[in-house]
Design a protein that fits this description.
Small Protein B, Chain: A; 7-stranded antiparallel sheet; 4 helices; alpha+beta
Length: 157
């Protein structure tokens, strides 16, 4: 996976809500099958994956509900902004993901949409388990306690 300091990897969209709603167990990088106007729209830095999810269907992995807005100069040759997009993963990884989703009730949530160092659009997908309400409250409580601890240490030292 890409380092945050790597200038070649350009982050396009991030699903920050996924880390709050799900307990992330495993992540993997997947390619995404795009049309030309979608790539141009992504290069301008416009996309939304906050409400999207990945789904397996007939032995293929699909990204559903991701929004890539139309590219205005394309005119009549534009793409559908919320169309389903095929994700490209190895067969072995796909079988492992399908097994986890079907047997263990896991969810495939996209975390990031970015261009890698070669300029290819990639999606980071997480194999995740949904958090219950009490888990979310505990996570918020821990985060606030750590924030308060850092404030106290800053004041003392």
């Amino acid at each position: 996976m890409a380092k945050k300091s790597d200038p070649n990897n350009k982050l396009i969209a991030e699903n920050r809500r996924a880390r709050f709603d799900y307990a992330i167990e495993d992540t993997l990088e997947a390619g995404i099958q795009l049309l030309g106007t979608e790539v141009k729209s992504l290069r301008s830095g416009r996309a939304n994956i906050a409400e999207s999810y990945a789904h397996t269907e007939k032995g293929e992995l699909w990204l559903i509900n991701a929004t890539i807005p139309e590219y205005p100069p394309a005119g009549q040759f534009n793409h559908e902004p919320r169309r389903r997009r095929k994700l490209l993963v190895r067969g072995r990884e796909l079988k492992r993901l399908m097994g986890a989703v079907e047997r263990e009730g896991r969810t495939l949530a996209p975390l990031k949409l970015y261009f890698n160092d070669r300029g290819i659009a990639k999606v980071q997908i997480a194999l995740a388990k949904g958090k219950k309400a009490h888990d979310k409250r505990a996570a918020t409580k821990d985060r606030e306690w750590k924030r308060q601890q850092s404030r106290l240490m800053k004041d003392r030292g």
